[in-house]
């Protein structure tokens, strides 16, 4: 059975839009896309021309970074676009479903609701670990996508590699396992991208928004079997990546030592912050984390949120998430920013 048998048949059969840039081959004078022949004032990137749908230099750089083949990679506007494409390609409106494990990243459910796909929830355990048996027991014939987030947002725990392999093997021929690795650069265990070649029903989400400091550029990547990548390209908008964003991504990827240095600082500061926060009056628990944030339980999370906000410090209120009604999520900032947070929480002047 091919993984494409799980996709919507009308998507497999459709004739995709063929953009002018996709059809062009060679040439020096471009009169096929109704573009302006003049660059705008101060433009040194040639933004008067449409960008390549999948820029070759960026695809090559990301494939090398993630250790996959070019055909196993799709780049788009953050991980959000890849999530949306997966749901639209594999879930028939009003018939199919996705499966998630709350508390987790909210866009999985949002994209499913937009598509009118059902959302089946299997809560994480009390310690926020994933229960593989419970997930598999909840998979129905309607479930086409199973999302897991590792490290999980907003709690920070990872899913062990053995659990990922058990899930993807058990879901073969039934559903696609989507592993969201947005924060994996901060985790000790590392990526499971090397499994892409073994399982055609495995998809992995990666992003340059976190460790590579490009949240504003919106560059995300989907790693998957070549057939899945080709299918999603059929329904992807023709020009997803603005030229300035591509340039920013290539510049960042050309200096990996800068990202590595920042990751090391975040990892070190995460340990410092976790130990210090655990000693703050009113803190009930600091959850273990392998991401660039900490979820912290407070006696009065609402009051703490307002106190930090009054001092000009914005953290994430995650009290609406299941089993986190007393928690805030605090991103690890610079050492100075982290010290400021601790000073406020320890009773320092605002």
Automatic annotation (TrEMBL):
<comment type="subunit">
    <text>Homodimer.</text>
</comment>
<keyword id="KW-0808">Transferase</keyword>
<feature type="modified residue" description="N6-(pyridoxal phosphate)lysine">
    <location>
        <position position="210"/>
    </location>
</feature>
<dbReference type="InterPro" id="IPR015422">
    <property type="entry name" value="PyrdxlP-dep_Trfase_small"/>
</dbReference>
<comment type="pathway">
    <text>Amino-acid biosynthesis; L-histidine biosynthesis; L-histidine from 5-phospho-alpha-D-ribose 1-diphosphate: step 7/9.</text>
</comment>
<dbReference type="GO" id="GO:0004400">
    <property type="term" value="F:histidinol-phosphate transaminase activity"/>
</dbReference>
<dbReference type="InterPro" id="IPR004839">
    <property type="entry name" value="Aminotransferase_I/II_large"/>
</dbReference>
<dbReference type="GO" id="GO:0030170">
    <property type="term" value="F:pyridoxal phosphate binding"/>
</dbReference>
<dbReference type="InterPro" id="IPR015424">
    <property type="entry name" value="PyrdxlP-dep_Trfase"/>
</dbReference>
<comment type="similarity">
    <text>Belongs to the class-II pyridoxal-phosphate-dependent aminotransferase family. Histidinol-phosphate aminotransferase subfamily.</text>
</comment>
<keyword id="KW-0028">Amino-acid biosynthesis</keyword>
<feature type="domain" description="Aminotransferase class I/classII large">
    <location>
        <begin position="42"/>
        <end position="343"/>
    </location>
</feature>
<keyword id="KW-0663">Pyridoxal phosphate</keyword>
<keyword id="KW-0032">Aminotransferase</keyword>
<dbReference type="InterPro" id="IPR001917">
    <property type="entry name" value="Aminotrans_II_pyridoxalP_BS"/>
</dbReference>
<dbReference type="GO" id="GO:0000105">
    <property type="term" value="P:L-histidine biosynthetic process"/>
</dbReference>
<dbReference type="InterPro" id="IPR015421">
    <property type="entry name" value="PyrdxlP-dep_Trfase_major"/>
</dbReference>
<protein>
    <recommendedName>
        <fullName>Histidinol-phosphate aminotransferase</fullName>
        <ecNumber>2.6.1.9</ecNumber>
    </recommendedName>
</protein>
<dbReference type="InterPro" id="IPR005861">
    <property type="entry name" value="HisP_aminotrans"/>
</dbReference>
<dbReference type="Pfam" id="PF00155">
    <property type="entry name" value="Aminotran_1_2"/>
</dbReference>
<keyword id="KW-0368">Histidine biosynthesis</keyword>
């Amino acid at each position: 059975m091919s993984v494409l048998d799980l996709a919507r048949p009308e998507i497999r059969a459709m004739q995709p839009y063929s953009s002018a840039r996709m059809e062009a081959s060679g040439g020096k004078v471009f009169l096929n896309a109704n573009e302006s022949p003049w660059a705008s004032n101060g433009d040194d990137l040639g933004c008067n021309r449409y960008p390549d749908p999948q820029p070759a230099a960026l695809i090559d750089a990301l494939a090398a970074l993630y250790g996959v083949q070019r055909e196993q990679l799709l780049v788009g506007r953050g991980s959000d676009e890849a999530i949306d494409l997966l749901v639209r390609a594999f879930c028939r409106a009003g018939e199919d479903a996705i499966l998630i494990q709350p508390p987790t990243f909210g866009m999985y459910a949002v994209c499913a609701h937009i598509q009118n796909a059902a959302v089946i929830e299997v809560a994480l355990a009390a310690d926020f670990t994933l229960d593989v048996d419970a997930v598999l027991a909840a998979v129905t014939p309607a479930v086409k996508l199973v999302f897991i987030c590792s490290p999980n947002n907003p709690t920070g725990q990872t899913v062990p590699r053995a659990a990922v392999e058990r899930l993807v093997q058990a879901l073969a021929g039934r559903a696609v396992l989507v592993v969201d690795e947005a924060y994996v650069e901060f985790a000790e265990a590392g990526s499971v991208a090397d499994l892409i070649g073994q399982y055609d029903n495995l998809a992995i989400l990666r992003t340059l928004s976190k460790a590579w400091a490009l949240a504003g550029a919106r560059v995300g990547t989907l790693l998957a079997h070549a057939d899945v990548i080709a299918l999603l390209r059929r329904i992807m908008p023709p020009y997803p990546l603005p030229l300035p964003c591509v340039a920013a991504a290539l510049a960042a990827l050309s200096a990996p030592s800068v990202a590595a240095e920042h990751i090391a600082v975040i990892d070190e500061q995460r340990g410092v912050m976790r130990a210090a926060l655990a000693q703050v009056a009113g803190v009930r628990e600091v959850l273990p984390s392998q991401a660039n944030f900490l979820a912290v339980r407070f006696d009065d999370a609402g009051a703490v949120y307002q106190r930090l906000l009054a001092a000009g410090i914005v953290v994430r209120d995650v009290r609406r998430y299941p089993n986190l009604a007393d928690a805030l999520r605090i991103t690890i900032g610079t050492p100075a920013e982290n010290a400021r947070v601790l000073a406020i929480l320890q009773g320092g002047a605002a």
